[in-house]
Amino acid sequence: MTTSEASALQAQFLRGIEDVIPSNTSLVSELSDILEISTDSAYRRMRGETLLDISEIVKLCEHFQVSFDAFSEVKSGMVTFSYLPMDAKAESFAEFLEGTHRQLKQIANAKEPRILFACRDIPLFYHFNYPELANFTIFYLMRTVMNLPDLNKVKYDPDFRFAELLEVGKSIYDAYIKIPSYEVWTESTVRSTLKQVLFYWESGVFENKETALRVCADLSKEIEDIERMAELDTKILNTTKDEPVSPIEDEAQHPVNYKLFLSDIELTNNVKLISFGDLRAVSLGHLSFNSMQTNNNEYCRNTEQWLNNIIKKSTLVSGTSEKQRLQLFQAINKQIDDLMKRISDG
Question: Is 3-64 assigned to CATH 1.10.260?
Answer without folding.
Answer: yes
